[in-house]
Task: inverse folding
């Protein structure tokens, strides 16, 4: 058993309610940082907004099988999602919104992709 698991397992077992309330708080905070609504996140997860709300309030336990999906959608590691500090100061990946935009751009005709790319280059060079 890794030291991280050994450290947090007793806390999870001793006080499930507090763990899931904190997890729900983390989900809500990260969701808001990503500028996602409960409805949007619930749609991605294939659950209702009410179910999502119950997760965030700590009234329902988040299934362990959903943790990797949540972490991916919220652009964090599972460890960060459950409240364990990031290892080696790893940075988060791009926001889900940015990933969706990149996917949408890739579907555009080549001429429009070049136009968007040129605009991004201009904006990025202006902030350098």
Result:
């Amino acid at each position: 058993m890794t030291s991280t698991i050994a450290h947090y397992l007793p806390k999870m077992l001793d006080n499930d309610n507090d763990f899931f309330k904190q997890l729900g708080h983390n989900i809500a905070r990260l969701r808001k940082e990503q500028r996602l609504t409960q409805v949007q996140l619930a749609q991605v997860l294939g659950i209702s907004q009410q179910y999502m709300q119950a997760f965030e309030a700590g009234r329902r336990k988040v299934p362990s099988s959903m943790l990797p999906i949540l972490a991916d959608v919220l652009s964090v590691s599972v460890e960060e999602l459950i409240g364990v500090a990031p290892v080696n100061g790893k940075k988060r990946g791009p926001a889900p919104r940015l990933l969706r935009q990149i996917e949408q751009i890739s579907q555009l005709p080549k001429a429009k992709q070049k136009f968007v790319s040129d605009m991004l280059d201009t904006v990025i060079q202006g902030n350098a």
Q: What stands out?
A: The CA atoms of residues 98 and 104 lie 10 Å apart. The first helix runs from residue 3 to 14. The mean pLDDT is 82.
